[in-house]
Amino acid sequence: MKTRTKTVVLGKFLTLALNFFVSCSSQKANSDLDNTSSIEIDYDSFIKKLEMDLLDDPFACQTDNPQGLCCLSAWYLDSEEESKILSNDLYNAFAFSHSIWADYEIWARTQMSGSEQLVPTDSIIFAIGNISAKKLGLKHQHEAEKFQKEMVWFINNGPEKWSEDRFPGRVYNKYNDFIVDNIEHFDTSKVYNYFSYVDALISKYDSIQKEIEAIQDDSTMIDAICQKIEGARSFDEQCAITLACSMKSSTFRGTYSIDLMSSLLNSGKYSILLERMWILWRAFSQSVLGRSRDAVIPNYSYDRMRKQVYTTISKHVKENPQDTNAIACGLCLINHPGMVRNGDYMFGNDADVDIMKYCPNFYGFLDSDEE
């Protein structure tokens, strides 16, 4: 198993512990957990997974922006593992929508702040126009291109010509609603059961969270977390423990948890917790790369991971078509927009919104007895 050298003291404890992190024994998993075996983790640097290697994407838009802020294109999915509900067309339709919105947001950031342009407007329009509904093979190409042209119109004409009925957010939401109504074909009321199930599953590990919180020494804390993960009886339990510890431990939730989540998400194994883990993996990664609204936000890389996770979930649903929680997991995953710049957090991008939603004491806003 490959390990990497940490520049901080705590790294040696993580490496030592993870040398023993192998596929676990055949102990019976808890009844609420998937009995899929746990995995051995390969700890490569998460930064390598965030590199914007545009050569891998035939639909990428290369612009004159050296930071690649405008290189946000849909990832074409042509998987043989698609299920009837979690289809390639459904994924590609949402990828088309979210990619165009992410590019638009770069332009909107400049309009809101009145600051120097992050990316030239012409480059943004070129990037949006270069995301081809035809190349993606979208079945509802006319509606997709109508949405695309409308977003370009907003940029070309500016806010002074917008109206309450013709407003960027409304058009974006309307197209997403079209996808849900015409492609998704799923009773969305079942999604609420999925959220409750995921929260309940993670809450089973509250005792581990409290145990970790009680440890004052950082190296001892990391060692304790690794022992818990080493003893996991299933892949679901590995995911649950990782999430529980990442949500509570200020030491573990940095690059340690990012590395571990990346390996779990890339494993190809299914868990009901994959969508929640992807949200936090993306949020933690972005908090390292930059929490500002003007930061480099590599939605390209985040969506590459989303594609991997969606394919895993779709394969599971194909084999288990009655698993409504798994279907909801996949639908929630692709309904998330790209990492938002101009969202609900007035002091930065929405990485902090996701973190505060699922980890309310991440930045010390809440003490454990106030949650």
Describe this structure in words.
The chain is mainly alpha-helical and 371 residues long. The protein has two domains: 200 residues, no CATH class; 100 residues. 54% of the residues lie in helices and 0% in strands. The chain has 16 helices and no strands. Helix 3 packs antiparallel against helix 4 and helix 14 runs antiparallel to helix 15. The N terminus and C terminus are likely disordered.
In short:
With 371 residues, this protein is mostly helical. It has 16 helices and no strands. Helix 3 runs antiparallel to helix 4 (121-129) and helix 4 (121-129) packs antiparallel against helix 6 (141-157).
In sequence order, what are the helices and strands, one letter per element?
Answer: HHHHHHHHHHHHHHHH
Largest sheet: none
| Amount of helix | 40-55%
**In what range is the share of β-strand residues?**
under 5%
Number of DSSP strands? 0
Discrete helix count: 16
Low-confidence stretches: 1-31, 41-74, 365-371
Radius of gyration: 21 Å
Secondary structure category: mainly alpha
Oligomeric grouping of the chains: single chain
Give descriptors for this structure.
371 residues, mainly alpha, 2 domains, 16 helices, 0% strand, disordered N terminus, disordered C terminus
